[in-house]
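This section describes the prediction task in plain terms. A model, or a person checking by hand, is given the sequence of a single protein chain and must write out its three-dimensional structure as a string of tokens. No templates, partner chains or ligands are provided. The sample shown here is typical of the held-out split.
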Amino acid sequence: MPASYAYLGPEGTFTEVALRTLPEAATRELIPYVSVQSALDAVRTGEAEAAFVPIENSVEGGITTTLDELVAGAPLMIYREVLLSITFALLVKPGTKVSDIKTVSAHPAAQPQVRNWMKANLPDALWESAASNADAARLVQEGRYDAAFAGEFAAARYGLEALETEIHDAENAQTRFVLVGRPARPAAPTGADKTSVVIWQRDDHPGGLRDLLGEFATRGINLMLLQSRPTGAGIGNYCFCIDAEGHISDRRVAEALAGLKRICLQVRFLGSYPRADVGVDGVRPLFPATSDEDFLAAADWVTHCQDGRF
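The expected answer:
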């Protein structure tokens, strides 16, 4: 495949800024795509080696467009993640005053992060969604809208100026981005890893979700994300996107996934990859009796029992 990475464009998105923090990005051609779907499809069709897209933010949780694309279609895998602190600037054409702003635009994920600021400062402005924050800036440049919420760094790219900066409703807001490629062997564990899966219940019954989560709980695995997404099969039909601490090569994680495969209608493995929030020293201690050595000792004990050696 070509040595290129697709990403949510156009140029000047937070996605591009986050992507450029990856060392390997310096050796790839970085190609902007108009949507998350088109970036991921570029990987599926072989147009790109990998795609870099937003998947979660600390204000609204999972980004549904990305989650739904990973749930459906040809399987893909997550190989890396990046966390980026997010603050917005209000970008306008030079000379524009606050009183001139009647329409504003940004990516839908930006709206919950600037809603209160907009209510206080632009209460009568009409919100219009764009494919990305940088695309909103481009539309302001073209005269489609009066202002855009985007990264301050996008102003120069689109001939705009930042009328306001450091806009955010929540302090320390972050967005998580992931590098997604075609399925292959996961990278070796680092000791500070995350495993992502999607699971579908066989049927809807009392305690069904508890049974699924119990596969993690009984093995001392902490969950970092749990989000339901509709399957499209009717009201009340959902699958569950899960991020769990640990790597598929860890005995506790492998056994949990095997347990899910046994009781679920379907399990889609989305990858095991290094965590971006902590290093090895920051990983919480394992729940008692859940190390690989504990699982191996328990398996040996069962073998001894089967052999008549107690």
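For orientation: The mean pLDDT is 93.
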